[in-house]
Amino acid sequence: MGHGGKQGIRPMTRTFTPGDEQQVAEAIAAALRDDAPLRIRAGGARARLGRPPAAQDVLDVSALAGVAMYEPEELVFTARAATPLADIEAMLAKHEQMLAFEPPDFAVLFGRKAGRGTLGGMTAVGLAGPRRIRAGSVRDHLLGFRAVSGRAEVFKSGGRVMKNVTGFDLSKLMCGSHGTLAVLTELTFKVLPAAERTITLDFPDLDEPQAQALMTKALQLPADVSAAAHLPAGVNRQGRAATLLRLEGFAASVAARRAMLEEALSGYGAPEMMEGEESRRIWRAIANVEPLAEPADHLIWRLVCPPAQGAQVAENLRAMLGDARLFMDYGGGLIWLAVPPAAHAMAELVRGALAAVSGHAMLFRAPPELRRALPVFQPQPEALAAVSERIRAAFDPADILNPGVIHPSAKREGTA
User: Fold this and answer.
1) Which of 227, 260, 287 is the last residue of a domain?
2) Of 134, 154, 185, 380, most Cβ neighbours within 10 A?
3) Are 311 and 131 in contact (CB under 8 A)?
4) CATH code, domain with 100
5) pLDDT tens digits, residue range 189-205?
């Protein structure tokens, strides 16, 4: 394990580069002895999500890469946490399999090179793409993991099969923890067969209330729609509004479900159809929030609400913010919003637009100074915040791992 600086001299910034799980534990133990918090890094693809960590030393785990086990016939693989997602997806594609939750790559949104995301970063952030409405999220596919806690203790949870267990489901705690509970070292996921055929139905020129009604109706039908999104004219590259429904599966099944949808939704006009790479390309763009990537200085909000209320939330946002640029995913349950940088003072208005429907908001893209000043994640009710703090303290009592990334660290804030 390497680290910056000469022996006996405490440098301004140290970078630990462990080569295995035991060296990760040793690095965390050294940080505990020095009371020097760590920012966790691997591919760096998701480094701009959340608040900037209140830490100067770096724990670079990028050496913890590689597939340990893949059994295509069992639909399961195990890989080290810093394994690039691009490598995992290429491996699965050779066997016509996939990560069903469709992990996004936000490279375009953050002006970075695509393909730098890692398996551990994906898990720590816990975000899924458009197929979430059918397949669930990252936590629904994580079977087990190994990790090192903020106590410098190696531990593991789960295994290679999904089954009912007693006690805490630690896998679900790790997903979305942003590295504040433990440093993931190895992960086991279940995978699913890739679809034989994929098509997208594009209903043009609907306004948001019409699009919301269409998506709600489509998702209530037994058509097994795997994604539903609405791109207003202002964000769709074609210059018109597009309401999109995706169907996947065996060719005969897709054809039958397409006929069902077109008949049931005939009141909204005849849809255009996309297939193959054209269909895959538009859903990748939606997953990666590419329609809102420019201008690069605009703030991006990620808003979650009850799916049937998406159009109402969009209307509320426009009434409060003016001509807001946004689009809807998850059948209306996810809204991506772009606002000019001068609108940073409107954080309370954004959250106010969600209050009536019990939604929540995350400031997804913003410069570091705003991510320090504004609540990046939805503030938790007092009781829930107390539970979250007890969980964090159980894994990392010294607040040594990515302190302040989710909420300000009472112990560490201002020390970085």
Assistant:
1) 287
2) 185
3) no
4) 3.30.465.10
5) 999 999 999 999 999 99
In terms of domains, do 207 and 112 share one? no
Taking alpha carbons only, the member of 321, 307, 317, 323 closest to residue 230 is 307
Do 60 and 20 have their domain in common?
A: yes
Residues of the chain with pLDDT under 70: 1-11, 160-168, 344-345, 414-416
- 38 and 14 belong to one structural domain: yes
Q: Which structural domain, as residue segments, surrounds residue 100?
A: 1-194+379-416
What's the pLDDT at 348? Answer: 79
Is-contact 343 299, C-beta < 8 A?
A: yes
272 phi, psi to nearest 5 deg = -85, 160
* 174 & 216 share domain: no
Q: What is the number of domains present in the chain?
A: 3
- Give the tens place of pLDDT for each residue, 53-70: 999 999 999 999 999 999
Q: How many CB atoms lie within 10 A of CB 207?
A: 13
396-405 pLDDT tens trace? 999 999 999 9
Tell me which DSSP letter residue 72 carries. G
Burial (CB count <10 Å: 0-12, 13-18, 19+), residue 9: exposed
* Pairing label, strands 38-41, 57-60: parallel
Q: Kindly state whether residues 161 and 30 are assigned to the same domain.
A: yes
